[in-house]
Amino acid sequence: MEEGWHARESWAGPVNWLVILAGGRGERFWPLSRVERPKQFLRLLGPTTLLQDTASRVAPLIDRAHTVVVTGQAYAALVEQQLPGSWVLGEPVGRNTAASIAWAAAAIGRRDPDALLAVLPSDHAVADPQAFQAALAQAMASAQSRQRMTLLGVEPTRPETGFGYIEVPTPSGDAVMPVEAFVEKPSRERAAAMVASGRFYWNAGMFILPLATLWEALGRWLPDTRDAVSGPAEGFDDRFAALDPVSFDVGIMERADRLDMLPLAVGWDDVGNFEAVARLLAERAPERVIWDRVEDVTVIGDDGPWIAGVGLSHLVVVRTPDVVLILPPHESQAVRTLVHRLQETNEGERLT
Amino acid sequence: MEEGWHARESWAGPVNWLVILAGGRGERFWPLSRVERPKQFLRLLGPTTLLQDTASRVAPLIDRAHTVVVTGQAYAALVEQQLPGSWVLGEPVGRNTAASIAWAAAAIGRRDPDALLAVLPSDHAVADPQAFQAALAQAMASAQSRQRMTLLGVEPTRPETGFGYIEVPTPSGDAVMPVEAFVEKPSRERAAAMVASGRFYWNAGMFILPLATLWEALGRWLPDTRDAVSGPAEGFDDRFAALDPVSFDVGIMERADRLDMLPLAVGWDDVGNFEAVARLLAERAPERVIWDRVEDVTVIGDDGPWIAGVGLSHLVVVRTPDVVLILPPHESQAVRTLVHRLQETNEGERLT
Questions:
Q1: Are A307 and B324 within 8 A, CB to CB?
Q2: What CATH number belongs to B2-269?
Q3: Tell me: the pLDDT tens digits for A199-218?
Q4: How do residues B231-279 score in pLDDT, each as one tens digit?
Q5: Which of A309, A320, A337 sits opposite B327 (nearest CB)?
Q6: Residue B66 — φ and ψ, nearest 5°?
Q7: Domain coordinates of chain B in residue numbers?
Q8: Does A321 lie at the interface with B, CB-CB under 8 angstroms?
Q9: Radius of gyration of chain A (CA)
Q10: Separation between Cα atoms, residue A82 and residue A80, nearest integer Å
């Protein structure tokens, strides 16, 4: 008691909160992911799920009691099972990330009005968690002292056209810098030029948000959203469902000025499809496999039949008890096509 | 009663018997075939097994009550299940086809000393069963009237080096001809020359055998075998196990003179490996499959998970509940390698 009281008295900073956005549904990981168990709840890369990895990665900085997970109501039980002790906000319907972050801010603000929020996606991978923790601590300290919304910007390793980019004034190593602009999904040529310039970083949806600053920005740019999440419990679901679905990037970040960014070089990966999983698992010895003269073939998924093969190369095999999916890695995006086809047939049970 | 009595009285020919050799073990169809269920007991090409197809194909000529199936003791129950009403001879150990045919001959000879035996493998496919029946009837009539052992020789469609060939004096269409010689597994060049000559046919192990002629040949070339199968029931297993394993081709056919052959052009296939199965199933719409941009991919096996695929070509997928095998068709022979590897590891349960 005595010690705890002293600790609290002597502590001068804000209360740090981790906000994990775990509302993703996603079709790119079928048949491993299903409607009832999307990507963030899967053991895609090891013995723990991507959601659990996200929390573990931050655990040295923010404990479970200060972890808020925003997800769909249908997934609330899964979150409680995978991250027991966290605070789960189950959205009645998905209304994109601005609404999710606003709701988390309102909920946390009632307990800690001076909180500092670290908002992270739930379904990414980080090769170097220690480096990630150091960068996160640095960004949180900067965001707090400057009272600025601060992004973690991922150093780009390829001219990716599917991501958004954050522009900063100078190529720089590890200092916090002001954000100059956002560039959404550039052409291949522009992406290559941006990566070459050293002044553009991937926007991976990792935000450090002083609560007061965030609340002010919400009031200015998305007042309906702020009102919906801060009103009385009664009528919450209806107010929430009535919101325009807008991303936090578009609704707040691209409109706000006085944003900061800290470069992040930690082996980040958005684990966007099976090709990425295969790349991340490349070193792992596959389990429950028997084969001969097989090269660059990755078996993803631990449940389901043994996989046997002869004379194969350049394939991903996704194993589940009721479906085995086979495709070349570069076809990973086409999984959606199969899912849509299943939706159109009466084989919908393959999706759940 | 009256009618049956007349029918029997008026019938002057021999009693025709079908002898199906179903002792094959085989590793080429793993994981579909297992130690406990080899190829002939599988529904490889349709709703019935290759063994059942063999009996059905001959049914208009020889009924079930005159069908003898020689198999391993371990498979006797499977045969009784798949061909109820047949007479099953369960060998204590496999001693190759000369011993199998001799045992069937001894068993049948006790009931019908003047029998005519049609001996057929249990695991081949025939595209045109009507044509097969016509040829079989013709060969049986010839074998009976000439009292000669008579082969059905398959018209070769490619210079196959894995088969044995039967040589006849002239290229001929559909007449019974004397056999001049046997050629075992020729070189590619010799096979091509033989096929071009029109005087060589594949030896597919289909024999029409007048019992008396067969018995005499056994007494001359394989007296130990004849004695073993015709001795008293007591000690049978030991006598049988002591026999040299020799094929009927080597032990009898290649030594005998006065053999006949009838050419057979009926879409015969030995269903030697998964590539053959894929070829024979090419027209069939696959079941329990969901895919996109998939070309020349055959799913073999009805049990087990759904198979999904994107952007694949030239593959065979063999589906069972506990193993899914993936390979290019031309690698079908390499399945043995996997089986041997499983035998060497402690994953032997995948084989049973």
A1: yes
A2: 3.90.550.10
A3: 999 999 999 999 999 999 99
A4: 999 999 999 999 999 999 999 999 998 999 999 999 999 999 999 999 9
A5: A309
A6: -115, 30
A7: 2-269, 274-351
A8: yes
A9: 21
A10: 6
